[in-house]
Amino acid sequence: MPQSEFNLRQLDELAESWASFYWDRGVRRSDRVAVYIEDSFDDQVHLAALARIGAIPLLVNGRMDPEPALGLMARTDPVGLYTDAAHLALLDGRQEKLGTLRWTVTADDVRVLGRRSLPDRALYRHGDDDPVFLCHSSGTTGTPKPVIWAHRQSLAGPGWRLSVPEDPTVMLSAVPQSHSSAIAYTFYSLLCGLPLISFSDQTGPGVARGAREHRPTRILAFNQTYSELASMELDPEDFASVREWQNTGDSAHDAHIRKLIRYGHHVVDGERRPGSVFSDGLGSSELGWATLRRYVTQDTPPRPRFLGNPVPAGEVAVLREDGTPAADGEVGLFGLRSKSVIPGYWNDADTYYRSKLAGYWLSGDLAYRKGEDFFHVDRAVDTIHTPEGAGYSVLMEEILLLALPEAADCAVAAGGRAGVQVPVAVVRAPADADPAELLARANAALREAGQPPLALLETALDEAAIPTGPTGKVLKRKLREKYADLDAYTASATGRFATETKEAAAR
């Protein structure tokens, strides 16, 4: 039976053996090697092995389709590809067209690795700015970008977190193990000696099973996992050990948070009390470590799209297009400065420098501030430019989930009608829900919040109706394509939906 538990010495020996394997295949300093396998902690083992000899692993999410995966490889010029039989079949020989690729190896080709040691000349000592690994952006707004993580930058976030006192914790890491957030928390756990459970099943039922079997005190996951958990009938005993839920990537929705913090416990003055804490932070592969953080308990009042307050790890700002600071309450570009921000995209300096403004890195989000409180409204590319004004899709989703408690999840995106953009929503709701009644309540709440009303609300019974990428983020560009012509869509659709008339929308 394969070994599944490792101490530091055993992990070091395993990384050494794999490093020797790569060295024997001719991999040297600064060579890139693509790793495209089923999601598991193996991604991070191969990172450690290749970094040991100064090579640069390209970690490709195993859930990514082969076309964008090959695109990432083409942009990074790997000398080798480590994969598995399933992903090799998906590639269907197309990797052989990569001009720099010298070899492809699958896990099945390495049946017995054995204990091996590197020659002294193979060990590489990184400088501060040397690349350690390449991950990639989510691709929700377009083609995934190869993201550089350098030595000093990759340790800046974990290094800051080490300065914050923390009670002993058992972390269940239920994010893709090739993702930068999983790697950052592995670095942190190794540095401070906290037990870490790297969990490959990021579905709601999978995380419930992981909590039941491993009894973690903290769960790290993405928003999509939390939305699934919030829609399930959970056994409180499965989560009795949980003190904190930690979110990264897209900020979590308040309606989902409120359902989850009913489970688990927290400790006050040594006394165990019911109810857990939700720790939320806006993050991305490029950011390295969240510079805003909020904590939600059962006593915390609802604050739609509240991102939290700055942490000492960085500096945050809301900027106008010209780089000047936005006024309090004014929506602008969310920017940040931090030692954990990446130094660039591989072979794409143009995109990287276009993402910088007035010394800040732009995350692609729109936000506003009230003093030291920051609020998120949308991704800039997802804003719906209606004749009545801007509709912020993420803010609208938050409003809908609070107004429609029977909804398990929703997604709002731009549709097209009579040549202009209008908001549309896909809502996961019970089978007997009336789309017209949901639309009426949704639009009443949106109007009250100063957001434009929905032109169409479509109900869906399963997760597939809301398309997501390999990291679980909603692919709103696919929704925009689907609803680009609402007149044609409503004429041919067979689903359950309701529409708002132009007259009603103008009221």
Unreliable stretches (pLDDT < 50, length at least 5) are none
CATH topology of the largest domain: Rossmann fold
Radius of gyration: 23 Å
Shape: globular
Count up the helices.
Answer: 15
CATH superfamily of the largest domain: ANL, N-terminal domain
The share of residues in helices is: 25-40%
CATH architecture of the largest domain: 3-Layer(aba) Sandwich
| Largest sheet entry | 12 strands, mixed
Number of domains: 3
Mean pLDDT: 93
Strand content: 25-35%
Task: Tell me the structural class.
Answer: alpha/beta
- Given this structure, which CATH class of the largest domain is correct? Alpha Beta
The CA-CA distance between the termini, in Å, is 66 Å
* Count of β-strands: 26
Protein architecture, described:
This protein is an alpha/beta fold and 507 residues long. It is 29% helix and 26% strand. It contains 15 helices and 26 strands. Strands 7, 8, 9, 10, 13, 14, 15, 16, 17, 18, 19 and 20 form a twelve-stranded mixed β-sheet that branches. Helix 1 (8-24) crosses helix 2 (42-52). 47% of the residues are buried.
